[in-house]
């Protein structure tokens, strides 16, 4: 088995304010699979993704990837693990504003001893004609394509995607999901994607549904459909904006420290939660 998660537990806070976010999570993922983690806000999806990515630590349990246990790694080994195995795609693009598309992607290439060919990847991403543009000259979809390119160019074993379509409209979201599918098929990367969008499960090889820090369903999708055929437009209404998510009660401060460091979630929602300025 390529990736094994064994009895993973995680909590935040102490005493009466202690909140269990993960309660004995256990599952495995085969190499090359697209695995979708589904669940409402506060179910533990992003915490689980952060632990797999080496951003956060579990209280107990283990993660084994190709025979290597994350919890046995010191900081130097953990850094090599991230560089060798992991690529990150978040809902906010986090591109370097004064670098071109190609230069932003090259930032990821510097982290790898065996990066993919950048011109070939630019063509795969549909960005070759935009390679010399700065981020402020791109659409939202083009910026997300660039962030995916930056993550994938180092040829990671696992592509971790935390709400990669959260900041995008319906049609652009479908384009990005198709791109992730194309990357998975062309380069063979294992994809683990967190989402609130129930329709996205239909493009996955494996679906894991979480609620209250526990796995409620874990199954292989026998009726997988292409990302381009997904449809989640609700008649007579619109979807809830996934950017309006909140961390689980009691975990706000810890989440802010993590996300602030990685410049991932520092939007008005998270500032509102962290500094109690809601209302």
Q: Helix and strand succession?
A: EEEHEEHEHHHEHEEEHH
Unreliable spans are 234-279
Average pLDDT rating: 82
User: What is the terminal-to-terminal distance?
Assistant: 48 Å
Sheet having the most strands: 6 strands, mixed
Instruction: Tally the beta strands.
Output: 10
Helix segment tally = 8
Strand order of the largest sheet: 6-7-8-3-9-10
Q: Which value, in Å, is the CA radius of gyration?
A: 18 Å
Helix content: 25-40%
What is the quaternary state of this protein? single chain
- The helix/strand class is alpha/beta
What would the principal axes of the Cα set say about the shape?
globular
- Fraction in beta strands: 15-25%
Topology:
Blueprint: E1 3-12, E2 19-29, E3 34-38, H1 45-52, E4 60-65, E5 68-69, H2 75-85, E6 86-90, H3 101-109, H4 118-124, H5 140-152, E7 158-162, H6 170-187, E8 190-195, E9 206-211, E10 214-220, H7 252-262, H8 268-274
Parallel strand pairs: 3-8, 3-9, 6-7, 7-8
Antiparallel strand pairs: 1-2, 1-4, 4-5, 9-10
Helix pairs in contact: 3-5, 5-6
Short description:
With 279 residues, the chain is of the alpha/beta class. It is 30% helix and 23% strand.
Describe the protein:
With 279 residues, this protein is of the alpha/beta class. It is 30% helix and 23% strand. The chain has a 6-stranded mixed beta sheet, with helices on both faces. Strands 2-1-4-5 form a 4-stranded antiparallel beta sheet, covered by helices on one side. Strand 4 (60-65) and strand 5 (68-69) form a beta hairpin. The chain is globular.
